[in-house]
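COMPLEX REQUEST
Ligand: 0RA
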Amino acid sequence: MSNDPNGNYDASNIQALEGLEAVRKRPGMYIGSTDYKGLHHLVYEVIDNSIDEHLAGYCDTIEVVILPDNGIKVTDNGRGIPTGMHEKLQKSALEVVMTVLHAGGKFDKNTYKVSGGLHGVGVSCVNALSILLRAEVHREGKIFQQTYRQGIPTSQVEVIGTSTSNGTIIEFHPDAEIFETLEYKYETLSHRMRELAYLNSGLTLTLIDERHVNEKGEPKTDVFHSEGGLREFVQYIDESRQKLIEHPIYVKTRDEESNVEVEVAMQYNTGYSENIFSFVNNITTRDGGTHVSGFRRAVTRVFKQYGEDNNMFKKLTFAVSGEDFSEGLTAVVSVKVPEPQFKGQTKGELGNSEVLGVVSRCMGEVLKNYLEENPQQAKRIVDKIIIAATARHAARKAREMVQRKNVLTGSGLPGKLSDCSSKNPYDSEIFLVEGDSAGGTAKQGRDRNFQAILPLRGKILNVEKALEHKIYENEEIKNMFTALGVSIEEKDGEKILNIEKLRYYKVVIMCDADVDGSHITTLILTFFFRFMKPLIEHGHIYIANPPLYLVKKGTTAIYAWDEAERQEAIQSIAKGGKDDNIKTQRYKGLGEMNAEQLWDTTMDPERRILKQVTIDDAIEADRIFSMLMGDEVPPRRAFIEANAKYANVDV
Ligand code: 0RA
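STATUS: Structure written out below.
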């Protein structure tokens, strides 16, 4: 029996089949996972090939269409996948690229291929994991096409028309046998495409969602294009922050010897947090690596030298340290490395040691020139560094005070905490509840065996705007540290959160379902994002989801979480007819529910809906936090208006 349309069953077919089988057997090895991440990875894999064409200088537009059935169509105007006969394998190069694992080697055209990371596994993997894939190539005046099922050709390479342009269209439908979900998220794809537009200036990426069509019959569409590249990227990230210098400091060069390409844009703002986003060959490196170390080294070295040379640090009684230079710093560091080595558990860290020196050298040079040519800007930055150093000194003292208190006061637990009886963190939960009154209700409604309650009074400190030592002096924040059992420790001058003694594996933020409540949720999240990020990364943080309505008639009562559910509840009580005795109670706050209702709807593990908070997208989270909390009002208003339909509009 043969799967080849020609009836041949030769060595190359066996090789292709074995490869495809391996991918289908262990998809996780090739695309990371088979959940929503892996599903989206398929798209990135195809786009990466189009971007390679861009990097080679042949492609300037890429269009991604989400088809109505969640299929994906990627069109580019690159050279098109070669279609000629592959000498050794005796079949069309198109079929080889689409069916042979790692066929890329033979066709290698781009120096900056990614190894060790998850990208770069090739379109043949996408093919193997698709129930249907169609490749269309416009090349040499013709249109070629081949179709596949689970990676196996279902047609020959056919000429189906003529064309005056070049390019490739890959249309694929992920296989339901492989993936846990088949639903593409617009936001996830648009986020990655925006990022790619900044990382590859001049390239136009279009995203079209045919699942969502407006009144005029037009699908939801976004076009991403940047001429300024990383300069515009840092401006986008810092959109809602006040800038300290007018234009980003920028460098783009290639080191001849190592063939490493470096592109960096950096900007200082009046805030206190550091935001360094880094990429290797267009892929995010969440944990930094040698490129980021090289960047930091240059920043620290050059500013320190400049400050000393100009006698600017003379008032300080202690030495400035690396972290003082990074307060209010936003930077994007992007390098292209021929043979990248990725380290760490999630391969999110660049290991190549040669990159450190290259980045440090060229960044140092550019920064030095910048400071010499822009003395006014230089003074502004150094003044900020001095303030940062002074505040760091004060913060350290304040932090030590909090932690000393932890050790000294008996159990050390805050008086406001109603703890659970279980001492096993695995099955313990803590609810952070807005306000003492809701806290009281939650205390009555909870299952005290495993649920603890910590009421938080009023609006906790706005951590985006506050200086670090002020944060550690804040009562509510001190309570959170002690109740959770986590502490900040310093190792080699770096602050790390010790979560080994975390007392509850689920930390649930429970606030009112109105605008104020969601504001407070965001404040608490900002705090976790800035000071207890590992808790989010390890999946410990959740948001409770109280119902908005109670639909009632006599003794029948149904909770509803949105308008659609409310209508459904009315329908079900009215049994399809009309009934004027059905009343809707709108819950404005948790306090309007009694203890039993709160347990039934929001706290009972069997029935509640918890939303787990992830840092799937650090850039977006950071942007939203600072937009909601920052100084610049216009972007915040625009954001709230744009998202008003998702928020609980409470008028
Ligand atoms: C192999 C060799 C060449 C290009 C490609 C593959 C290629 C693959 C994809 C996937 C999506 N779009 C693509 N565009 C190109 C080099 C072509 C040449 O040398 O002419």
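REMARKS: Residues 46, 49-50, 53, 76, 78-79, 81-82, 97, 107, 109, 123, 168, 170 surround 0RA (CB under 6 Å). The chain has four domains: 21-225, 230-387, 397-545+617-643, 549-611.
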